[in-house]
Amino acid sequence: MTFWDILTALTKGAGYTILVTIASVIAGLAIGLLMAVLSTLHGKAVKLFLAAYAYVFRSIPVLVLLFIV
Q: What contacts 47, CB < 8 A, 6 or more positions away?
């Protein structure tokens, strides 16, 4: 492989990385906004669900979450 072939592959990979980053930021923002709106509701089931969701994702190490994704 020549330098230009490698540079082309790296550029393509960087583009995919930026695309995945933007998609994950949008998804995280949507989930966070949904949870924030749900937390303003006064239902006991909603509060329990949000507490369980936060507890589970805080308990799992980041490295394990990276392997899941």
A: 39
